[in-house]
Amino acid sequence: MHLGLVTVVVSEYDPAIRFFTDVLGFELAEDSPSLTNDGRPKRWVVVRPPGAVTGLLLAQADGDDQAAMVGRQAAGRVGFFLHVDGFAAAYARMTAAGVRFLTEPRTEPYGRVAVFLDIAGNKWDLIGPA
User: Fold this and answer.
1) 28, 87, 113, 120: which has the fewest C-beta neighbours closer than 10 Å?
2) What pLDDT digit, counting tens, does each position of 82-106 carry?
3) What is the domain extent for residue 83?
């Protein structure tokens, strides 16, 4: 058993794909035409870190209720955790790419951590070894 996908609601597919692939270094695992439950066209877009089993389903907001949740998937809390082997290098690369960090890197019992925002405005922890 494994967790396959977690949905991240985004405003638009293509900028979100660019953020996760070009900025965070994820792989585009799938970008296929699909249909909503009521038959309207949409895309099935999956990104994941290299070698990962679990991926993110990038879902373009459909309607006012979903649009209101863009960037608020965890109600303002950190809801996503990106673990890296080389914290300093990842932090420097992401900062150079324009990622907005909300905190300076700090050391916690579980490792080095800094909070950043994804393209939708969701909070993530960038976590590396202590």
Assistant:
1) 28
2) 999 999 999 999 999 999 999 999 9
3) 71-130
Same domain flag for 59 and 23:
yes
Task: Say if residue 60 is in the same domain as residue 124.
Answer: no
pTM of the prediction? 0.93
75 and 124 share one domain: yes
Domain of residue 29, CATH code: 3.10.180.10
> Each residue of 41-62: pLDDT tens digit?
999 999 999 999 999 999 999 9
**What's the CA gap between 8 and 71, in Å, rounded?**
9
Dihedral sign of CA atoms 16, 18, 23, 24 in order = positive
